[in-house]
Design brief:
Four Helix Bundle (Hemerythrin (Met), subunit A), mainly alpha, disordered C terminus, two-stranded antiparallel sheet, 197 residues
């Protein structure tokens, strides 16, 4: 997957190496990752502000922990694909709520999600061409994720910093896209072997 993801590259490295648990369909890291899928469904359905803050906190915690757990205890081939999918679905769901609220303009929401949009397009293109690969996690990609989470919290708490955080996240996203495109050719790794994506 030639896409800017924080932990999927670590999981792909585990998959391509000896850290894959033989015959395992799921790993402990995969279970944490999969938890973000019901959270993505719950976020727009829950009306209470603090419940939504809790959902964001749990999603952030699972995203923070699944990479180190995959490196420590091993991962599965499924996990290398599930991780970026779960991340993108959660952010799309959460920022869909932000977009419908009208508190951010559509172009601000696109800016916040620009890294994820480009990553998704890159993943689809490389998967269709059967050249799916992963790039090791980069600081810019991690910073975008932090910015997205802070923007979500600012939205939920009706903070005056909402617009500033959205624009800052968009700027970091542009840097992350440039940074990943700069290193993509020399640092990408196969994602789970031939035919995997």
């Amino acid at each position: 997957m030639t896409a800017p993801d924080a932990d999927s590259a670590a999981r792909a490295a585990a998959v391509s190496g000896s850290d894959v648990t033989p015959g395992a369909r799921w790993s402990a890291a995969d279970l944490l990752t999969a938890a973000r899928l019901p959270l993505a469904v719950a976020f727009p359905l829950v009306a209470d502000t603090w419940a939504r803050v809790g959902i964001v906190a749990v999603a952030a915690a699972t995203d923070l922990l699944d990479g180190p757990i995959a490196r420590r205890f091993g991962s599965s081939r499924l996990g290398a694909v599930l991780d970026p999918v779960a991340d993108k679905l959660f952010m799309a769901s959460a920022f869909g709520v932000v977009a419908f609220s009208g508190q951010l303009a559509w172009y601000e929401v696109v800016g916040v999600l620009l890294r994820d949009i480009v990553a998704t397009v890159a993943f689809v293109v490389t998967a269709v061409t059967r050249r799916a690969s992963a790039i090791p996690a980069r600081l810019g990609g991690k910073a975008v994720t932090v910015g997205q989470l802070l923007t979500l919290v600012a939205f939920l708490l009706d903070s005056s910093l909402l617009h500033q955080l959205a624009w800052a996240t968009a700027a970091v996203g542009l840097y992350a896209i440039w940074d990943y495109s700069r290193v993509a050719g020399r640092e990408k790794r196969p994602l789970g072997g031939a035919g995997q994506f």
